[in-house]
Amino acid sequence: MPDEDFTVTPYAVEGDVDYDKVLEQFGADELTDEDRNRFPEPLHPLIRRGIFYGGRDVDEWLDGVESDETVSIVTGRGPSGKMHLGHAFPFYLAKYLQEQTGAHVYIPISDDEKYFAKDQSFEDIQGWAKNNIRELMAVGFDPEKTRFIVDTADADVVYPHAAKFAKKYTQSTVDATYGNPDNIGLSFYPAVQATHLLLPQLVHGKHQTLVPIAVDQDPHIRLCRDVAAKEQFDVTKPSAILSRFFPQLKGDGGKMSSSGNDPTIYLDDDRETVEDKIKTYAYSGGQTSLDEHREKGGDPDVDVSYQLMYYFFEEDDEVVERLAEEYRSGELLSGEMKLKAAEKVADFLEAHQERKEALGEFEAELEKYTFTEEERATLTSDLLY
Ligand code: TRP
Question: Is the pTM of this model over 0.70?
Answer without folding.
Answer: yes
